[in-house]
């Protein structure tokens, strides 16, 4: 599957999507903000507990928010910014697009729309 990379006008394999994302364990639960250059692979790794660290320790397996970026440098800046935010700002960001805190895994992995870009 491919998604249109609007800034350079080329097709980008969905496996190579650059993304900032948030994982949780439940509605308004513990939050983890991450960045990756392999969005699909990384989310599967979180869900299957393959990555040692915070997400595995707290069993954060639900994808509740993500943004697709054209450049890794932009994504890292966005992740760094979000990590500095107060918790309520992060909740507001999630609830703007996902008010019920649905796990977006199925929506993203079973159906691949053109990703949301910032």
TrEMBL record:
Transmembrane spans: none
Residues annotated as domain GIY-YIG: 16-93
Gene3D superfamilies: GIY-YIG endonuclease
InterPro entries listed in its UniProt record: GIY-YIG_endonuc (IPR000305), GIY-YIG_endonuc_sf (IPR035901), UPF0213_domain (IPR050190)
Protein family according to the UniProt entry: Belongs to the UPF0213 family.
Name of the protein described by the UniProt record: Excinuclease ABC subunit C
Organism whose genome encodes this protein: Caulobacter henricii
